[in-house]
Specification:
With 210 residues, the protein is mostly helical. It has one domain (50-209). 58% of the residues lie in helices and 4% in strands. The protein has a 3-stranded antiparallel sheet with strand order 1-2-3, with no helix packed on it. Helix 5 (130-143) packs parallel to helix 8. The longest helix is centred in the last third of the chain and has 30 residues, at 180-209. The chain is globular. The N and C termini lie far apart (100 Å).
Length: 210
Amino acid sequence: MASIACRWSGPVFCRDNIGMSLFKPRASATSPDPTRPESPPAPQGPKLDGRFLCAHPAHLVALAFGAGLSPIAPGTVGTLWAWGVFELLNLLLNEAQMGWLILVSLPVGWVACTATARHLKRDDPGAIVWDEVVAFWLVLWLITPAGWLAQLCAFVLFRFFDAAKPQPVRWADQTFKGAGARGGFGIMFDDLVAAFCTLLVIAAWRFAVS
């Protein structure tokens, strides 16, 4: 009969000289698994600065000519930039021309956001604010004529829907995720839904007080 040799090695209790264990050791929650190869580190995107902004025409568009470089609330800064530029364009363009500009800005923004997100190696970088720009232009264009107070209310509503993402904005934000053209479309799409919700609230308010 084979002799039974038992030895204690940490949490493992072994029996006989073949080395079969009665209890399978559990992997530690803190120590790495030596049998599993280490995953490569996530790729780091380039630094967001003026050099990156000017490195490609798509960056200029997607980052709203520098508004997206703001270290604090780039989405809000981009929307404020859109508001100021809209007021300036209103002095140069009529209503129809402004509508055409917004229409052209949609596919241009899709391409620019797709390329910039790829260069940044992120699916939806916060520095990309062209989606806020075009969506808020659409809001301002559709509520024209409107005084500064009405525009301010539109700004607050749009930022609420875009930042808090209640339904259906959350659905729009989660439907199109990932890299490539699908992700670029998703960057634009959820802000357009936020713009739609903003216009819906404004229309309901105007109907209620009329």
